[in-house]
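Supplementary Methods, section 5.1.

A reviewer requested that the exact input to the structure prediction be made available. We therefore reproduce it here, unchanged from the version used in the analyses.
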Amino acid sequence: MYKLIRGMLMMFMLNCVVQAQITITSNDVPGSPGTTVYYNMTGANTIPVNLGEDGANRTWNFSSLNLPQGWAVPWVSPGSTPFAAQFPTANRAVEIDLGNFKSYSFSFLNSSGFTPLGNGLTSQDTIYSVSIFTRTEPTFLFPATYGLQWTSVFEHPNSPTITVLDSSISEVDAWGTLTDQTGTYPCLRYKQHFFLMTYTNGILTATNTLWVYSWNVPVRGSQISISSVTNETNPNFTMGFVTRIASITAVLQLPTPQILPTLLELHPAFPNPFNAATVLTFTLPQQGDVSLSIFDAAGRHVSNLVQGRYQPGAYQVSFEGAALASGVYYARLIANGRQESRQITLLK
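The structure derived from this sequence is encoded token-by-token as follows.
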């Protein structure tokens, strides 16, 4: 009898897990200042893709995807950018280094949605161009669960005579479990159909469409995103462009001590050895440009954890090694002409 009852309880618990849906709220959206999201992506050409099925309790495996290109997207404080006056309501911003230019995107996040506000471009820290959306609606709604549907529109003038209307029809059409080279995650799948309409002097002159599927993971964001070619007519397309989150690092400034540090120091990682993630702490005695990077045992560059200008103080930064092979790696801190290194060991 005991075994029967225990078996019934286990079946009930398993059924609860299988049937449980996933909910994503605004608290699950990464993007606080100091966070950098590192992406892998396809190049200029499409690759074969398998979108899988919609519905409940699905599984998707993207472990075999080869995504050669990398891209770092730092989240910054909107008020620290050259466009603080143009986007006073923004509470989220990303900064992308394009070499001679820097591109910024601004948005507003609250408990009900994520709304884009516009973009800016600088050259040598001087404002080059700015595009403020004159009509905005959330491109993502919260809380998000399986079955949620919505539409959104935002409008931005490109010139006195040209206006672009960007609209989308969105649906959370599936939930389940996603597996890729970084791990296995519960997720919601978002299916979105975008329409980009260009008006010249009030007359529609061009229309382009795009399908985008994204597998959104609580706390991480869009772990996998697959987009079609422009003007694709088949929503179940088999060739597309893929973006994957490789890792996320968050730089946390520790409370300022009464006595500021006098030496540049990279403290031992904890835990070390580690499995999947560890934390590095460094102290900075004076303001300066800081670089903290990871290298493998052969000296090959693996990841940038910190790249930017920081005030004196102590900082913590997380490092994810889920996509890396077991082995010995080195963390290298460079600031104000000095360098510190620490050995870290990844065990899986």
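The chain has two domains: 26-247, 254-346. These observations are discussed further in the main text.
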